[in-house]
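Might I ask for a little of your time on a matter of protein folding? Here, with my thanks, is the record as I have it:
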Amino acid sequence: MKLTKKITTKLHSQLPSLLTVAAILVFNTLSAFGQAFNSTELKTGISNSLAVIMMFGFVLGISCVIYGGFAIRRGDVDQGKMSIIGGAIIAAAPAVIFAFYKIFGIDANSSVGIGNF
């Protein structure tokens, strides 16, 4: 009998904090039910991620072209030409892929894009 009284007094003393935690959990999960999944949001996120990667690729391609110019200036013509050609391919790759998607008409359902610059 004494054991049940001790348990009930402990439970009654902790009841307000338990109710507060339960209310916080319930109210936070209710907002999660209001979220709706939309495939256009996923497509937009992937497109934005690809745009960031393409920007880094563009900067890398431009730096390769500059390095090729310095290599030609040093006298290493073959290495310079290869670096310039490779840099131009790297820098132009997003625009070329986007053009292919436009030409073949598959740009509406894809996440590939060059972004809104």
Remarks:
- The CA atoms of residues 22 and 56 lie 46 Å apart.
- The mean pLDDT is 76.
